[in-house]
Amino acid sequence: MAITSSQSGATQRGGRAAMPSARWLMIGLCFVAISINYTDRANLAVAAPSIKHALGLGDTTMGFVLGSFFWTYALMQMPAGWLVDRYGARLMFPIAVCWWSLFTAATALANSAASLIGFRLLLGAGEAGGYPASARVVSRWFPSQERAFASSIFDSGSRVGSLAAFPLCAWLIASFGWRTSFVVTGLLGFIWAVAWLAIYRKPERHPDVTPEALHELESQRRTRAPEGTAIRWVSLFRYRTIWGMMIGFFCLNFTIYFFITWFPTYLLDARHFSLKQFGTWGLIPGLIAIPGGWLGGVTSDWLYRRGWSLTAARKTCLVGGMLMSSVITLAAIVPAAWMALALFGLAYASLAFTGANIWSLPGDVAPTRAQVASIGGIQNFASNLAGVVTTSFTGVMLTITHGSFVIPLVTAGVLCLVGAATYLFVVGPIEPLPLPPGSSKPGQLI
Fold it and tell me: What is the four-CA torsion angle of 204, 206, 211, 212, rounded to 10 degrees?
């Protein structure tokens, strides 16, 4: 590959090749995809009150409708991660986005709880590829000392997408009806897929990445073994660290998915917000969470660059963020709506702070980069079982307690404390995992 003066971000600095500036464009594309991902899944939460009225659904039924997405989303995480590792993010990412966009738009055809559940199951299957693919892009384009911040960028798409869904879908529903909101948001993914195929390349094939920059990037990827080492996929479950990542992420997502599913209903029913008030004041927790996630990534990488071990840098942010997020329990008992919103904002920002570090872990602990998306899919599988539990559990508790959110919010706070303990005591050192028995070379994840 020829080196030219026009290849930005590839000049020599202090004897080291600078990382290519194109890496920020690649992670920007991931950010947009995850934003669309969460807009498409959150629009049902915004439309839930209208759909309940139009189709005559109760709280328990609506809870199962909201939770149905997570069954296939969780179950498809592990195969999606394997497929991304096997065929690459350039191919599998747009396939996933087009799949989920198709069934987002098709939700407009639903006329019963059964059809809503069917479309949400198909939506979940497609959306499963988003995070494993993004984690793989980070591992390809970013060294360890930038990985948490890069992860915080694409992970912040979850807050931006959810946040955008509130005013956008609320306006579409108020102006044109709930069915139109699904059609409009479904179209966004097809536009993104065209841009991805036109722009995305691996560093090895990108024209702005010089051999020196590529060598520097390769030398900073922390791996235990060469890329060609064959590792059986099932052997990843032998590691305590992998199980700790699964449990900790489950605890975090139990609370995260309250914001994505039942939070609009909480403000509308428990705090008696109008749809217009929800479209403005309901944005506050998400707005606070966006910089909260970026701060989590910056803090972790900064500590690492300052000489902290990667274990200390990552775990300080993981444990601290989970501990602080437990304040969500207090939102159930404060008398004023503004107090509840402030607590929700602090909890959501703390969860986002943690999430940036959670999504740096697959690249940090993978024996080779050929397992990054698979490990990302494994931890995301466990975390999204929480989506099923949160939505169904909350719906049942609302029915039993005649609309009280106290039990769901107390449960969320307790699980945040459990998650903090898991990252501290169960997850081992943040370093590439040792090769399992039976690994061989050449080959790949099998």
Answer: -110
